[in-house]
Amino acid sequence: MGTASADESKKRPLVFAYYVTGHGFGHATRVVEVARNLIQAGHDVHVVTGAPDFVFTSEIQSPRLFLRKVLLDCGAVQADALTVDRLASLEKYSETAVVPRASILAAEVEWLKSIKADFVVSDVVPVACRAAADAGIPSVCITNFSWDFIYAEYVMAAGNHHRSIVWQIAEDYSHCEFLIRLPGYCPMPAFRDIIDVPLVVRRLHKSRKEVRKELGIGEDVKVVILNFGGQPAGWKLKEEYLPTGWLCLVCGASESQQLPPNFLKLAKDAYTPDLMAASDCMLGKIGYGTVSEALAYKLPFVFVRRDYFNEEPFLRNMLEYYQGGVEMIRRDLLTGHWRPYLERAMTLNPCYEGGINGGEVAARILQDTAYGKNYTLDKLSGPRRLRDAIVLGYQLQRVPGRDLCIPDWYANAESELGLRTGSPTAVTTENNSLTDSYTQDFEILHGDFLGLSDTLSFLKSLAGLDALVDSPTKTGKHTIRERKAAAGLFNWEEDIFVARAPGRLDVMGGIADYSGSLVLQMPIREACHVAVQKIHPSKQRLWKHALARQQDKGQGPTPVLQIVSYGSELSNRGPTFDMDLSDFLEGDEPITYEKARQYFARDPSQRWAAYVAGTVLVLMKELGIRFENSISLLVSSAVPEGKGVSSSASVEVASMSAIAASHGLNISPRELALLCQKVENHVVGAPCGVMDQMTSACGEANKLLAMVCQPAEVLGLVDIPGHIRVWGIDSGIRHSVGGADYGSVRIGAFMGREIIKSIASKLLSQSLSTNGSHPDDSEEGGVELLEAEASLDYLCNLSPHRYEAIYAKMLPDSLIGESFVGKYTDHRDPVTTIDKTRNYGIRAAARHPIYENFRVKAFKALLTSATSDDQLTALGELLYQCHYSYSDCGLGSDGTNRLVQLVQEMQHSKASKSGEGTLYGAKITGGGSGGTVCVIGRNSLKSSEQILEIQRRYKAATGYLPILFEGSSPGAGRFGYLKIRRRNPPKQN
């Protein structure tokens, strides 16, 4: 810590209590460095940790170090070595830190007093800050992230159940004096003041030459250190994973693990910094410890993306800023396709020249603060500090030219004037300059862009891809990583096909589609664009790892599917995906859908590709198409994910439309929608009905698509009268039809259908045995009705009065899966599986589609009735009834309920009653459990003002400004496709 001043040398030794999170070794290793400097300055350090003793004692041999083995912060629970289990993390934190909170605080206050602690340091345990405050002891956090930021996205995924965790953590942190912030930091607005310090890294003990000599490794050998902190389960390392002449040092290998001769198992307590400095590159997953030490020792880092590890984008930005990182696709990690990445790493020249004495600097700040020095900064509070945390956290650590990519769950930026947020809209444009610019770039060989501004913007961005090579700082609205990948995707001398498919707003019908209901759906303005190029394998520009994979197979060019997906950085997924199209074949036949699901499930960061690449497999299996050429595909979607507006359907429909067009396939919009449903049901594995894909494919702007889902009979288009307007308001709670709630309600509905059929069969048998008469069946033609109900294909074919008269009281409220299977064998739903241990709701799940079908029919009829307040009131009432029926099924949510309540408050306010009413009804949409609410009202300026007021009130209550969906656009069938070619194609290497 340097030479102490005369005054400081007279000050008494201090007692520091240092709390360490249980999330990984990286925290413990940086604590070691700060603690070492504090002890060197003569102070006592009590470390509260769950990490092994050797992590500390190997670096600090001093009686002033005290280790207390207590774990107060579970961190993030890993589903596997590369995936965080978000819900399990929240549940574990609740179990270990929330439920016993009172006893923890009491115990920590007593312990802090017992050791006579002068100062508390936290990395980055929330409750330690509150315990320090309760004990009257100042505290400071040292970290590059905080758990309120990490858990915030988890709560969005889990719903409101654990929301209080985030507020509690932020409140605990607020008791700190200030934050000592490390490079690669995330947004941390809970802290009042911030002091930035250099990287905290462990010092080197031995030279590269000494380490290599001890390990018997010559200087001519290339060494990669596998620094994984827990390897994927069942992973077996193989000799051929490494290029010839390479050696791999393996950290954290189990004692029983057998390694090939070119892999060397390191001791559990091996000192990693020395080994890193003796290596030529590192392979592992990103964490603060690995990134900071890789930068400090200028070691190229080949990293694999982790799922739902929200600290990662910030560290990755820092790593790439200093030219020290290469991202490896997880599939290539697990299958041993390492060579192209290692060779790429050897071409890097890491250029970090910043300080690496953060441990010393932080220790000095802690000591000075404990002695009374005031480090409070002259910073603005509130919104300014939040902006600093969010924006600078990205801006200062980004690659030059990268646009800010603040995750959508954290950055709900708002306009002070309009308070409106959302995706770029697809309104018809009269902007001649944009149109002229487009026609200069491309020759249109087929199709019409229909004046859609979002299509023109997409084409403009497509034309600008080649400019990235000449001007890497002008990246447009997408990240430089995505743009670079897309820039090498197409051969500009060949034709490109473009398709467009919108998302949809579920006005009526929702989850009754799989039960055969009539549904009314509106395509929204936001849409997905897909550009596809079919090209001979010898002309395709392959990415380096894909080219190396083909070379490793010792074969000439073979068909490869390459996909770039814009927006990946916002959704915690890899921006690119590639595969040999032969992976979809077993011999000459396409693989099964089950094997395809397993194929895409291997790498969660690339699971999104199932929605896109799955269209290729479905075309192969269902239409017998054989793809002998390569396919390059760019996906750009403005349909927000997880909002219940069918982002997945728009991607599927746009992808299949573009692929079909590029291969000369003439598929009707209806047939295309059914094929896309197979993608989602069988390749992705989500049990959705067909209305999403049908609306995206067959819809028309400003009209409702009316369809009977038995399985998909389009009745036609229903005009929305001019005096009526429909909006969608996002609740901010993530929705996914792949989730358990939607699936369990669907299973309950199919169970209910089977029980009704069984009841009808018994009643029919009794009726026939008494010569066609039965006391419970007084209707004329009762036998015919029972016969139809005994062979019921769709619940929606059962009328509400028949349901109430005969079946309602005979259906159980719920049933254990095992009991149902034992009595009825199967629920006969091809896309869901009964969990025998689960309790399924039956009555509400079966009742909903029966009544919903009636409500949709009534809604459709009302749209054509005379204009009146009664008409609007009745339409709104039908929406309300649908909403509460969802809740009865268990598919409601706090957010959507709050939005519906706000609509009701507006509807019944004095202002609305005294004049013309404006808003008349609202309902949750789609699969439920969050997502978007559909609102119906009068088409007037006052209605728009009230919608904006609902946005404001919702934000005031929840902190989340909802996205507003308004307006409509044509479906994929109406759009058709564009066939385009560059007018002056750039020269390509």
TrEMBL record:
PANTHER family: GALACTOKINASE (PTHR38134:SF2), SLR1395 PROTEIN (PTHR38134). InterPro entries: Galk_glycosyltransferase, GalKase_N, GHMP_kinase_C_sf, GHMP_kinase_L-arabinokinase, GHMP_kinase_N_dom, Ribosomal_Su5_D2-typ_SF, Ribsml_uS5_D2-typ_fold_subgr. The gene is ARA1_1. Residues 611-699 form the GHMP kinase N-terminal domain. This is D-arabinose 1-dehydrogenase (NAD(P)(+)). Keywords: ATP-binding, Nucleotide-binding. Residues 493-534 form the Galactokinase N-terminal domain. Gene3D superfamilies: 3.30.230.10, GHMP kinase, C-terminal domain (3.30.70.890), Glycogen Phosphorylase B (3.40.50.2000). Pfam families: GalKase_gal_bdg, GHMP_kinases_N.
